[in-house]
Amino acid sequence: MSEIMIVKNLTKRFGGLVAVDNLSFSIYKGETLGFIGPNGAGKSTVVNLLSGYLMPDSGQIIFDGVDITKKKAHERARMGIARTYQIPRPFPELSALNSVMAAVVAGKDRKNQSFEDAGGEATHYLEFVGLFGKRNILAKDLTFYELRMLEMARALATTPKLLFLDEVMAGLNPGEATRAVDLVVRAKEQFNLTVFWIEHVMAVLIEAADRIIAIHYGQKLAEGTPEEVVNNDAVIEAYLGKGWKKYA
Amino acid sequence: MVDIELKRDRICIRYKNKKWDWMIEPRYWRNSILWTTALMLFPLFSYFFYPTLINTLITANIYTCIAIPLAVMTVGTGRINFGPNFYLGVGAYTAALLSIHLGMHPALTLPCALLMTAFAAIVFSPLVVMARGLYYVLLSLLLPLVLLELSMIYSNIFKGDVGLFGIEQLFRFESSSINFLAAAYFSSVIMLILLTIANKVLKSRYGLIMSTINDDEDVARSIGVNIDKVKIITFVGSATAIGVTGWFIAHYFGTFAGITYLPLTFMLKVLLVFLIGGRAQVFGCVAGGYFVSFLEMILIRTTGEISAVLFPVILLILLFTLPRGEGLFGLYRKRRYREYMAQVHVRR
């Protein structure tokens, strides 16, 4: 497998706090990479750095063979990097259809696609996540699960190669969580995605991830297959705890 | 080559890799034609039955012509500009000075006024990228006041309090009432053109992108929107459109004094039109413009001097009682609150 993204010695400081400390790893094409760590470990900061929301203090990010360290968020989005947010951030005053249409229109230059055609394409993504019936509802009136799905549709509409999922399962009940996992797996297959998945629900990552990276205080703690990482003493000590399997 | 294809409900236009669809189904333009007809018959009705209403109509059109680009600017930049009259002043002074000193015809001063307003907007456009919240409000509020001060300091050029006079007028018919009627129609046409362009822009792919900026700039960035570019284009385009109103004012009255249009009192009236109509709603701006001007005229005629107090009081009551943040347009939206197209609002 070839690398879709290479991260070299990434560092980000907020004043005196080192949020990400000399972090290096690779993401391979077509894999699902789990990203775990205790609260405040720097997981979301890493996603913010890789998606261009924050600029690193030092280090290098290479995506698809191109150095994107200095590129802005919208340029990275157009290159094929999409993300969802830990707390859903919809466009509250836009309907579900318009939210996804905006991503279709802005995400990439489509040949011979009029604004009306973009509506047709957006409908496809809404149908995929199960929100077709809610297409004309304003995003601010959707439920939490629907907002998660809308974010997923919006991210998919930019036709990404690499998708960052930031705690998709947070706030969902078991039934919704199962549907969300199924959806991520289907999206990965149908849209040929590489997935970078931050998650606290270990059972999900053990099932879905090909590899897992654990971080603590912005530094890499362990990397390997899910079995290797969850049995790593340092990971158990810093994050999982000894009885973690009871709660996974 | 441009390829045009007629379909059942639309005209498809293709050029290189781009494609545009233009809806031609009657249901898309029936209401527009009805309203436009009513608007076009109104000056004629006033001319024969209540000639004094024509002046109010022109004032309403002037307010609306400022409020419409302001609404587009607000959506596309995600910020309320508190100094739209600065661009009105730039357009008006350019047209006035060129007309007085070089004897230029209004048709020639228009492109010059537009260019000058666009230049001023480009110079100040970094504000929409750099300044946020209160800082943007203060900076935008400051610009017309600075221009007003400049007009006082350089009174040999701008003629200070007295204002510039002797500007070539738009219409020179023998009867003054015909001049008024022509100006009423002309201002209505300018307003309708601005309204059509603004509505078309807001309902296009560009308008949708603008509304994402209005809702959440960071998320807009993450879906691939170059927000700085969109903000600057919107700002410059809208400010230039406000310059047209300045040009019209200068050539309609034949005189222009900054003291009338640049202080806070005029700007507050425009903002009231903008808010009473419905924030960032272009059709609401039309309703707001006509409502505010006619209310002002009725109060002056019926209550006399006390109208100066009644007018702001009534508007303030309306601001609080009309559907929150959506003004007069909100009354319509109460019935049809699930629109197919984007309904954009200003962030609080």
What this model shows, in words?
The complex is a heterodimer of chains A (248) and B (348). With 248 residues, chain A is of the alpha/beta class. Chain A has helices spanning 43-51, 73-79, 96-107, 115-129, 144-156, 174-190, 202-208, 226-230, 233-240, and strands at residues 3-14, 17-28, 32-36, 58-63, 66-67, 81-83, 162-166, 194-198, 211-216, 219-224. Chain B is mainly α and 348 residues long. Chain B has a domain at 50-264. In chain B, 72% of the residues lie in helices and 6% in strands. In chain B, a hairpin with a 3-residue loop joins β1 and β2. Chain B is globular. The A-B interface holds A 51-53, 72-74, 77-78, 82-83, 85, 89-95, 97-98, 101-103, 105-109, 111-118, 136-138, 154, 157-158 and B 10, 12, 14, 17-21, 204-205, 208-209, 211-212, 214-216, 218-227, 338-345.
Short synopsis of the structure:
The complex is a heterodimer of chains A (248) and B (348). Chain A is of the alpha/beta class and 248 residues long. Chain A contains 9 helices and 10 strands.
Provide the fold topology.
The complex is a heterodimer of chains A (248) and B (348).
Chain A: E1 3-14, E2 17-28, E3 32-36, H1 43-51, E4 58-63, E5 66-67, H2 73-79, E6 81-83, H3 96-107, H4 115-129, H5 144-156, E7 162-166, H6 174-190, E8 194-198, H7 202-208, E9 211-216, E10 219-224, H8 226-230, H9 233-240
Parallel strand pairs in A: 3-8, 3-9, 6-7, 7-8
Antiparallel strand pairs in A: 1-2, 1-4, 4-5, 9-10
Chain B: E1 2-6, E2 10-15, E3 18-23, H1 26-49, H2 53-77, H3 84-102, H4 106-124, H5 126-130, H6 133-153, H7 155-158, E4 164-165, H8 176-202, H9 205-215, H10 217-222, H11 227-253, E5 255-256, H12 258-261, H13 264-277, H14 282-303, H15 307-321, H16 327-335
Antiparallel strand pairs in B: 1-2, 2-3, 4-5
Helix pairs in contact in B: 1-8, 2-8, 2-9, 2-11, 2-13, 2-14, 3-4, 3-6, 3-11, 4-11, 8-11, 9-11, 13-14, 14-15, 14-16
